[in-house]
């Protein structure tokens, strides 16, 4: 793989309080930035991210045909159509549907980085597509979503993998995904009953 002059920086999204420089990429492997590309791949017309549940419900009143998708602290929100679960979303026909989406970590950080030149969401699901989209950029800032109680190991692992590939370094994705499969975030999902979401989030370049 040819080396690149593209500059990358990995930042903790929850702690970020400035203005993004250049292109921003949001990483929330478990599970927002895995669910978002799947929602689009399953036919969603577009996605409206919201920071709060209240905002999502208010938007639903204005767009009655929209679907409410999201979670708080991992679990589907009361009266929402679907949770933030990639495994489940893969099974849905969302053709021409508008999605109102909110999550504990991902959409909160997303709202903080909207001032960037361009904003992308990335995970293993759309990894190559992300790399292709930003390959000619001068600088890319990668924002890891983390968790309310600290860092999310899976986001750190993927962000470093993404940064390395953007810089033209040869990294074995299978080894990276193996680390994610064994990390604390994966163990947490298993305990919560979302084991299928681990496999669904590790389908490399599936959209």
Number of domains: 1
- Note the run of SSEs as H and E: EEHEHEEHEHEHEHHHH
Please mark out the parts with pLDDT under 50 across 5 or more consecutive residues, or reply none: none
> Mean of the pLDDT scores?
97
CATH architecture descriptor = Alpha-Beta Complex
- Biggest β-sheet: strands ordered side by side in the sheet: 1-8-2-7
CATH class: Alpha Beta
- The tally of helices reads 9
Please tally the β strands and state the result: 8
Q: Give the full name of the CATH homologous superfamily.
A: ComB-like
Most strands sheet:
4 strands, parallel
Would you give the CATH topology?
putative 2-phosphosulfolactate phosphatase
Radius of gyration: 16 Å
What portion of residues is helical? 25-40%
Which term fits the overall shape?
globular
Q: Span from first to last CA?
A: 22 Å
Structural class: alpha/beta
How would you sum up this structure, described in words?
With 207 residues, the chain is an alpha/beta fold. The chain has 9 helices and 8 strands. The chain has helices at 32-41, 53-62, 86-89, 106-112, 127-134, 153-166, 173-181, 184-192, 195-201, and strands at 7-12, 23-27, 46-49, 67-72, 75-76, 98-102, 118-122, 139-144. Strand 4 (67-72) and strand 5 form a beta hairpin. Keywords: Hydrolase, Magnesium.
């Amino acid at each position: 793989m040819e080396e690149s002059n593209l500059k990358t920086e990995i930042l903790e999204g929850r702690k970020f309080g400035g203005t993004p420089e250049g292109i921003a990429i949001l990483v929330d492997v478990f599970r927002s930035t895995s669910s978002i590309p799947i929602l689009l791949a399953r036919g969603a017309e577009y996605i409206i991210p919201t920071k709060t549940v209240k905002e999502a419900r208010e938007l639903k009143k204005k767009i009655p045909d929209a679907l409410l998708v999201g979670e708080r602290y991992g679990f589907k929100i009361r009266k929402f159509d679907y949770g933030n679960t990639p495994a489940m979303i893969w099974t849905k026909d969302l053709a021409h549907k508008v999605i109102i989406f909110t999550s504990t970590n991902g959409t909160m950080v997303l709202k903080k980085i909207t001032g960037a030149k361009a904003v992308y969401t990335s995970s293993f699901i759309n990894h190559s597509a992300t790399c292709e989209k930003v390959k000619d950029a001068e600088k890319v800032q990668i924002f890891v979503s983390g968790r309310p109680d600290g860092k999310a190991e899976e986001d750190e692992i993927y962000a470093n993998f993404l940064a390395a590939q953007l810089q033209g370094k040869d990294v074995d994705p299978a080894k990276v995904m193996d680390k994610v499969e064994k990390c604390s975030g994966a163990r947490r999902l298993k305990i919560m009953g979302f084991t299928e979401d681990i496999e669904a989030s590790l389908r490399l370049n599936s959209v």
